[in-house]
Q: What sequence folds into this?
């Protein structure tokens, strides 16, 4: 790109300089032709003509015009030199990195079916807009199961999300989202499920934003290996933010407060669905927060900016050529 721009600049300079030179040569050639057609004639008493006030005024005007042309010519040469030096425009930009990993962490106990389906549908709609982001899916009830790992193969993600969503229709005697999620004792072991999702992130040496979207009502039945606060501390130690979505309806104040406290430990936030709050709105908030967290270091960007100087040089050259033609220099 820089090489092609350089060639354009040199070609523009060559054309403009050629136009000026051509105008001068053409004017001189016409003068020589006029002199050949009309031989020189000597004028007697020329000093009387030069003493006339009108002659003096005409001479002063001509000298002023010639001085102005000299200034225009020098200005044109100066702008040509500036263009040849390739002036640049400087701009401070704040790049936004899209190296973001999102693990969907769905509590697939019976009370969460509607929220899980809505969450999956939102991410199905988001897939065409994603660039450079990796999505993973882990489901849990009394035991966690990884449906698919973090990947940016959006066609694969789309197929898997559709398959899991279909299982919530309970068209099969043993729905797929039950497979492997009922191996423990109890139900909705939130701490174990959240910790399992946190541990699914790879490439820890890479500078990527990592977040878990946890859909659960925090209604735990049984004895988990890790409590939710302990799982939140694990997430915080691995720089993983947690964002929870609960159905609000049927969730006690104590359960909602427990989710909020755990998510705040990770630097994330807890959301409750209500009449004015949707999963899509929550996910949009999460994406906005993660985007702000991914703002890169400010950079100084320099780009070629010769257009103004080329225009000034072209105008100066045209004025000079027109004046030389008019004066027949």
A:
């Amino acid at each position: 790109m820089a090489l092609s721009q350089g060639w354009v600049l040199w070609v523009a300079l060559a054309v403009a300089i050629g136009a000026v030179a051509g105008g001068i040569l053409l004017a001189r050639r016409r003068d020589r032709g006029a002199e050949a057609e009309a031989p020189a004639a000597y004028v007697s008493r020329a000093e009387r003509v030069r003493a006339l006030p009108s002659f003096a005024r005409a001479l002063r005007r001509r000298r002023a015009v010639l001085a102005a042309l000299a200034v225009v010519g020098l200005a044109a040469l100066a702008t040509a030199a500036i263009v040849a030096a390739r002036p640049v425009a400087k701009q401070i930009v704040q790049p936004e990195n899209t190296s973001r990993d999102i693990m969907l962490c769905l509590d697939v106990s019976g009370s969460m079916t509607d929220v899980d389906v809505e969450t999956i549908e939102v991410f199905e709609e988001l897939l065409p807009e994603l660039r450079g982001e990796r999505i993973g899916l882990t489901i849990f009830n009394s035991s966690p199961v990884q449906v698919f790992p973090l990947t940016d193969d959006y066609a694969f993600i789309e197929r898997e999300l559709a398959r899991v969503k279909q299982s919530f229709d309970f068209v099969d005697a043993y729905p797929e989202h039950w497979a492997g999620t009922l191996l423990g004792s109890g139900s909705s072991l939130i701490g174990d499920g959240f910790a399992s999702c946190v541990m699914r992130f790879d490439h820890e040496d890479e500078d990527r934003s990592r977040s878990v979207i946890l859909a659960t009502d925090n209604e735990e039945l049984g004895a988990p290996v890790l409590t939710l606060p302990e799982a939140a501390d694990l997430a915080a130690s691995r720089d993983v933010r947690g964002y929870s979505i609960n159905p609000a309806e049927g969730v006690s104040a104590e359960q909602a407060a427990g989710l909020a406290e755990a998510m705040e430990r990770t630097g994330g936030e807890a959301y409750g669905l209500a009449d004015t709050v949707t999963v899509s709105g929550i996910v949009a908030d999460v994406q906005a927060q993660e985007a702000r967290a991914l703002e890169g270091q400010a950079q100084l960007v320099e780009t070629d900016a010769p257009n103004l100087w080329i225009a000034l040089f072209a105008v100066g050259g045209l004025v000079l050529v027109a004046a030389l033609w008019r004066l027949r220099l």
